[in-house]
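Write out a record, focusing on structure:
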Amino acid sequence: MLVGVVIAAIMPDVFVFFGGGGQGYPAFCWFLGVMAIGVAILTQSVWRRPVILGEALSFGGIVNAGALKLLMLAMINSLPVAITSTLFLFFVEDRLLLHGMAGVLLILFFVSAGVTVPIWAKISLRVGGKRTLLFAMPMSILGFAGAAYIAPENPVGFAVICVASGAALGADLVILPAMFSVALTQAGLKASAAFGIWSFAGKLGLALAAFLVLPMLERSGFNAGQSNSAQALETLNITYAVIPCILKLGALLMVLSLPDKELSS
């Protein structure tokens, strides 16, 4: 997943470098189509395997397993990253005035997440999922706080924030799904049957992020790539950094309220 995000972030710039028009996106569209066909051909053996139907997963079963609280945590915790992902280009280009650097910084963010995933996995095996999250989530909160106060035209400072925030995201990617799977397995339920529900929670967070923050920016008079008023830029700052920081604090409190036994793996 992270490799796909990095490829999506870098390829438009690659096509521009080789002379592609429309900021590289027309060529990128063809690239995605070819890649989809290639992946379909290479993974034919996977789709030909017999389907193993899991047991019916009921709402009551999820509640009894203690997994409903984890689902709620997953959705709340996904909102900060969903919001920043939605507004990342606007924040870098219009708030920080780092023109042409959004792609590189976004790649830095997701590479940091990917590199730290195995590290967080090892830490969680030693100290447990809850303690790992209680260490990683404050890193994300500090990153949001730093983004709220960072001065424009400071690429090094924001790069440090991207690295720290990406590292914190690595913990979310590996720890929370594992805890959800463990909770269902310990209750005698098939975790694979709930994969769609878990994925839906993350996608719902992304949809809610766009629904909540984009109208706020529009009402403030914000226009991407144009001259904006101080009020519009302050609204962008609040929606990108302050609101996600508050949401992350809420997710941290939810982690604190979870019993340790639910998070052991």
